[in-house]
Amino acid sequence: MTVRIDVPEGKHPVMFAWGDAVPGIGPAAAAFAQSVYSDHTLGLREFEAARLRIAQLNGCLFCLDWRTEKDGVTVEDGFLEAVEQWRTTDAFDERTRMAAEYAERYATDHLGLDGDEDFWSRFSACFSQREQLELTMCLGSWLAFGRLNHVFGLDAACTLPVSR
């Protein structure tokens, strides 16, 4: 895939796109994207199930390759494949399955969520209101920024610099 922005010589494509290219918005977007990882209170498995389902739907190569670490732990090998089969996998508990379902529906049929009382009943049984809002903000970040990176070819051009 081709990087679809002109990146000055010596500049990191992602850092340029998320900073110098749009100095009023890029750093704020980067801070929001970072806060999704640093400030969330969700469990690792439901966080990763939702994140990876968005990555699959976005086609973001970097996001598909990334594994979030929480307290020194990442999800097991095969988790990505289980996310693809979230409806039928026996690898997920109800919260993890619900997170993957919500991610898919949020990304592909958000209008269909309105009035689906069965969904909201199941979702509310798994997640508190705070967790629902938090997960939704995470989904919004991944949906928007994963698509930005993919559309502009940033996901295949390089890896994101990570400060740990």
Could you please describe the fold and organization of this structure?
The protein has 164 residues and is mostly helical. It has one domain (42-157): AhpD-like. The chain has helices spanning 13-20, 26-38, 44-58, 61-65, 79-84, 94-108, 110-113, 117-126, 129-151, 154-157. Helix 6 packs across helix 9. The longest helix has 23 residues, at 129-151. It starts with 12 loop residues before the first helix and ends in a 7-residue tail after the last helix.
Terminal CA distance:
28 Å
Question: What fraction of the residues are assigned to beta strands by DSSP?
Answer: under 5%
CATH class bucket: Mainly Alpha
CATH fold category name: AhpD-like
Write the layout of secondary structure elements.
Blueprint: H1 13-20, H2 26-38, H3 44-58, H4 61-65, H5 79-84, H6 94-108, H7 110-113, H8 117-126, H9 129-151, H10 154-157
Helix pairs in contact: 1-2, 2-9, 3-6, 3-9, 6-9
Which key terms come to mind for this protein?
63% helix, disordered C terminus, mainly alpha, AhpD-like, single chain, 164 residues, globular
Summarize the entry for a quick read.
The protein is 63% helix and 0% strand.
